[in-house]
TrEMBL record:
This is Homoserine kinase. It catalyses: L-homoserine + ATP = O-phospho-L-homoserine + ADP + H(+). Belongs to the GHMP kinase family. Homoserine kinase subfamily. Residues 126-205 form the GHMP kinase N-terminal domain. Pathway: Amino-acid biosynthesis; L-threonine biosynthesis; L-threonine from L-aspartate: step 4/5. PANTHER family: HOMOSERINE KINASE (PTHR20861:SF1), HOMOSERINE/4-DIPHOSPHOCYTIDYL-2-C-METHYL-D-ERYTHRITOL KINASE (PTHR20861). GO terms for biological process: threonine biosynthetic process. Pfam families: GHMP_kinases_C, GHMP_kinases_N. It is an enzyme of class 2 (transferase). It comes from Cuscuta campestris.
Amino acid sequence: MAITLLYQPLPFFSRSVEKPNPNLRFPAALKFGGGGSAVTACSSVSISDPEPRYASVKSFAPATVANLGPGFDFLGCAVDGIGDFVTARVDPGVRPGKVSIAEISGAGGKLSKDPLWNCAGIAAIAALQMLGVRSVGLSLSLEKGLPLGSGLGSSAASAAAAAVAVNELFGARLSASDLVLAALESESKVSGYHADNVAPSIMGGFVLIRSYNPLDLIRLKFPQDKNLFFVLVNPEFEAPTKKMRAVLPAEITMADHIWNSSQAGALVASVLQGDLPGLGKALSSDKIVEPRRSPLIPGMEAVKKAAIDGGAYGCTISGAGPTAVAVTDDEERGKVIGERMVEAFLREGGLKATAMVRKLDRVGARPIFSAPR
């Protein structure tokens, strides 16, 4: 028996990013319960024309690891210490209600400064629409701290940082779900309508996307007293998201569906319990997506074996790749695991790679500086 997989985005959010629509209704409700925190879209933001509280706001949004093995398109987590920065400024030289991009650094000239073709610009415009801003224009400065196409949620971090900066500039009126929706507008233009990068980048920690229509997000609380380190190994290799999605099957067997569902359930349980061995085992057990993508990344299978042989609890591809991610509960062991993974990429794949060891980011995107008016 086969199961057809559908990747078509659900059009519950306006696709227009050029003209504010005063009739749009956006989610603004947060509810908490169970082992995690649920964010649901169930009420509307008050549409007005708020005054800016600051002259400028600088925000940071962390990198993310999406999919986490069996959680394709519905599980992700945020990673501490690496990410993108966006500064949003009130700019009298920009038409009211519009956004311009003044500067981009760290991207090697590869990103457009047209706000309608830039992740930060699209998310900023969506946030302005939600806020109902019509009296002032904004300019953005984007500082890329993440490599493009790395599998670490580079586009999502830019979008998340922009949405948070714009929101803070006008008094932080939008909820977490609103910000995810704004950032999703950007993701839909780049890699498809999925929130497993933008949701954890904005909310922090582990996030499960329960549904898109309505948007229903569940934050999975990893215990505070447990150590969790991600070993991130990024090879010098391009793995465009669209190409990596193109290799995925349109249908899967019932057996693979049952297997992956059970592994995803085990992964969620392991996160909530702080069970690192269980988390790593589930992380490594995808039978649907990873087997199709791994052969496209030279040396990936050997890298995964090197990580586990080196003491990692588990290893998989981060997002669409090419970054490999392993998990451990000890930072020093993580450094050794990273060295072995780098060696495997070079030996088996002929690729140079860099390794870093990072903690779970439990906070998510946040403003880090504001200048008074």
